Amino acid sequence: MLSGSERRLPISERLLSPDRLIEQYQAARTIRNRAAMVARRRRRAGSAGSVAEARLDQILDQYSDETVFVHIGLSDINAAFEGNPFEFIVDKLDEQFDSILTPGFTPSFRKDDGRVYHKQYSKPRFGTFSQLFHSAADYRTDDATNSILVRGPYRFEDCDHHDSWGKSSCFGALDDDNVQYLNIGTDWLTASQLHYTECFRELPYVEMVDYDGVIYHDETTHEEITQRTHEYQRSVTWNRAKVADDLAEAGVLDRYNCNGLRIFAFNAREMREALAPKLATDPYYLVT
């Protein structure tokens, strides 16, 4: 027999509420997807083999937009082509496009002891290409967590730089302009614009948060800012393989495999609009 201090809880208190059951179910789905994506990365065959330069030219010639937003994997470009991989791919992109854009993200601004963003000296966090491109860029947006590096005349003058994923943000402008995206040498479909899609649709596992800090425009000019950006309520991983398959089937994603060098091409707004029916049916579609 239980003592008074060991009173058994009534069934009504022990059972999870419907909302809590749904929350646990969605969490399990996202965990399974993360594990599956990790396993797929480990099974990757290896670096790309040699690719004829003319083949890359042939692919790039299919895209005539003035502006391109790129995610670049230098390791596979180095394996596929002769010479310095960074200089090689930037020269190729310069020949084809007037403006080249790439992420200059600085998540360190989110940390309590790191709330300073210096447009010149804050080093992009993700990828060797972005770190090298920083010195080749002509312009960097004022977004303290999710800046964009620009080589060429494209600008974001009428945007709210301190609302990373809002409709009036820099990424909102890319959506409005339906900017061309290219992934060259990436293992999977890579798209900063997916963050914009998540926030545009107010998906349940993403929340918007504000970070107060300081931006330095140059050596001395600085000001206090509040940066509004996204934060995930739990660890999630996009199911890039599924998303790529569905976008290709919808006719908004071009995919190429040149002896292991993978290339993906799509346009910003077309991608978001193609994903809308999937997300309307299942808000966790991207991460399960």
From TrEMBL:
InterPro entries: Amioglycoside_AcTrfase, Antibiotic_NAT-like. SUPFAM superfamilies: TTHA0583/YokD-like (SSF110710). This is AAC(3) family N-acetyltransferase.
